[in-house]
């Protein structure tokens, strides 16, 4: 039922002249849930979020907040908090004044405002910074002021548009944890926009993947990563090896797939083996490609050559050539590294492929 959802977006559209920024988007956010909108730049994330906040009117569709139709309500009647990508702090106002701003607009009393500001600053770790100006704060602190300002209004739900994208990597990762812990502690329903797959996967209960104004997939992080189900999701979230082939024969719960333009034959687990001759696209994550000096036992063991090496520190990515096909293999940096051009063995567990239909 509608009232069970904190946010219910039903078939919303946004048209800018001939540009369709958001095209028939629907999803729900449950009470206390953390949901991310994830997708490349220009896919309609901000437009979707701003329609929910009330800053942009949809060209069609319905938006409900806690069961109430808010589609035609102004932002201040929606009880929704918003954290902007660039923080949008008032530069001439102190931290306390910035946080108090929305409360003053709502004509609350002085003591009430002082209490709420104090609370919001305490919760975001900013007690003691009341009298600073934004320019006297680090990027991470400014980001927290923006968050405190949203929290001070005690919104029923919090909308955030790439709130960490202006921070450097170390701070961004620290702030991810802080934000997520705060959100859990306050049990705050959150819709979070990001183009950063790590952020979406690590923080969210569920992820709405968007592409070209449309919803490509809604699922939990591990489902999105482990079984992307479409080429777009597989490509956008993580790195994927794509192999096109044809089913040679099926045996029990397995298919033998002949990879196109190559002598490579793969044994692939498949609950419902596709028909013989069916064209298949196989997805294979790089960390599922095992690389070793010694010949391993089992199915899908192939001789290969290392043709390219990317050293990341904790992991190493090898590009290996197998029967004229190029595969990405990512391994933990625990064994002696392989050298370029070295002969190696590649093994792939038949259960680690994912299949999608080839169009
Ligand atoms: P994202 O936040 O995912 O990067 P946006 O929601 O900002 O994407 O934009 C989605 C699409 O709509 C883009 O193609 C963008 O150029 C277009 N768009 C956004 N706002 C406007 C506008 N005010 N006028 C015209 N086109 C717009
Ligand atoms: Mg955006």
TrEMBL record:
Signal peptide: none annotated. One of its GO terms (molecular function) is ATP binding. SMART domains: AAA. Pfam families: ABC_tran (PF00005), TOBE_2 (PF08402). Keywords: ATP-binding, Nucleotide-binding, Transport. Residues 7-237 form the ABC transporter domain. Belongs to the ABC transporter superfamily. PANTHER family: SPERMIDINE/PUTRESCINE IMPORT ATP-BINDING PROTEIN POTA (PTHR42781), SPERMIDINE_PUTRESCINE IMPORT ATP-BINDING PROTEIN POTA (PTHR42781:SF4). This is Spermidine/putrescine transport system ATP-binding protein. It comes from Aquamicrobium terrae.
């Amino acid at each position: 039922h509608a009232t069970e959802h904190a946010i219910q977006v039903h078939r919303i559209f946004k048209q800018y002249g001939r540009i369709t920024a958001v095209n028939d988007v629907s999803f729900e956010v449950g009470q206390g849930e953390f949901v991310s909108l994830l997708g490349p730049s220009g896919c309609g994330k901000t437009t979707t979020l701003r329609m929910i906040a009330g800053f942009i009117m949809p060209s069609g569709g319905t938006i409900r907040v806690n069961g109430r139709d808010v589609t035609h309500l102004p932002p201040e009647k929606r009880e929704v908090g918003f954290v902007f990508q660039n923080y949008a702090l008032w530069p001439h106002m102190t931290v306390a004044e910035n946080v108090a701003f929305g409360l003053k607009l709502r004509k609350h009393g002085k003591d009430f405002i002082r209490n709420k500001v104090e609370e919001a600053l305490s919760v975001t770790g900013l007690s003691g910074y009341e009298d600073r100006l934004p320019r006297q704060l680090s990027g991470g602190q400014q980001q927290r002021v923006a968050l405190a300002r949203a929290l001070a209004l005690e919104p029923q739900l919090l909308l955030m548009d790439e709130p960490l994208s202006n921070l450097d990597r170390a701070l961004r990762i620290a702030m991810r944890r802080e934000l997520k812990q705060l959100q859990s502690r306050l049990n705050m329903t959150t819709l979070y926009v990001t183009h950063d797959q790590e952020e979406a996967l690590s923080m969210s209960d569920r992820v709405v993947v968007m592409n070209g104004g449309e919803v490509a997939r809604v699922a939990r992080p591990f489902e999105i990563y482990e079984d992307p189900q479409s080429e777009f999701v597989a490509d956008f979230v993580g790195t994927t090896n794509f192999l096109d082939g044809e089913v040679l024969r099926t045996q029990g719960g397995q298919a033998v797939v002949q990879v196109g333009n190559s002598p490579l034959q793969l044994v692939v687990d498949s609950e419902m083996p596709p028909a013989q001759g069916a064209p298949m696209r196989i997805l294979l994550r790089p960390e599922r490609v095992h690389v070793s000096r010694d010949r391993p036992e089992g199915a899908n063991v192939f001789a290969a050559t290392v043709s390219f090496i990317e050293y990341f520190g904790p992991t190493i990515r090898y590009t290996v050539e197998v029967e004229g096909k190029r595969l990405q293999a990512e391994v933990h940096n625990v064994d002696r590294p392989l050298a370029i051009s070295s002969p190696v063995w590649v093994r792939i567990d038949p259960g680690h492929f994912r299949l999608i239909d080839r169009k």
